């Protein structure tokens, strides 16, 4: 299953470091491309600003 979604170079890292999970937010770049209609720039800016205020490490 992992071979289809995760490059094989990453699988060994997953097996070795099972003590934590690293999550990357890619909504502003990739996620908005999945929307059926184009999201206006001011909405994108607000979305990014809200994400940045969550306090997660970038």
Short description:
Pathway: Metabolic intermediate metabolism; (S)-3-hydroxy-3-methylglutaryl-CoA degradation; acetoacetate from (S)-3-hydroxy-3-methylglutaryl-CoA: step 1/1. It catalyses: (3S)-3-hydroxy-3-methylglutaryl-CoA = acetoacetate + acetyl-CoA. By secondary structure, the protein is mainly α.
Report what the structure shows.
- It is an enzyme of class 4 (lyase).
- This is hydroxymethylglutaryl-CoA lyase.
- With 58 residues, this protein is mainly alpha-helical.
- It has one domain (2-52).
- The protein contains three helices and no strands.
- It is flat.
Secondary-structure blueprint of this entry?
Blueprint: H1 2-5, H2 8-16, H3 41-52
| Quaternary class | single chain
Low-confidence stretches: none
Distance between the termini: 28 Å
Task: Estimate percent helicity.
Answer: 40-55%
- Output mean pLDDT: 75
Strand percentage lies at under 5%
Overall geometry = flat
Instruction: Please give the number of β-strands.
Output: 0
Q: Kindly provide the radius of gyration, computed on alpha-carbon positions and rounded to a whole number of angstroms.
A: 15 Å
Based on secondary structure, the structural category is mainly alpha
Query: How many structural domains can be distinguished in the coordinates?
Result: 1
Query: Main β-sheet, in a few words?
Result: none
H/E series: HHH
Number of helices: 3
Which properties best describe this structure?
58 residues, mainly alpha, 3 helices, 43% helix, 0% strand, flat
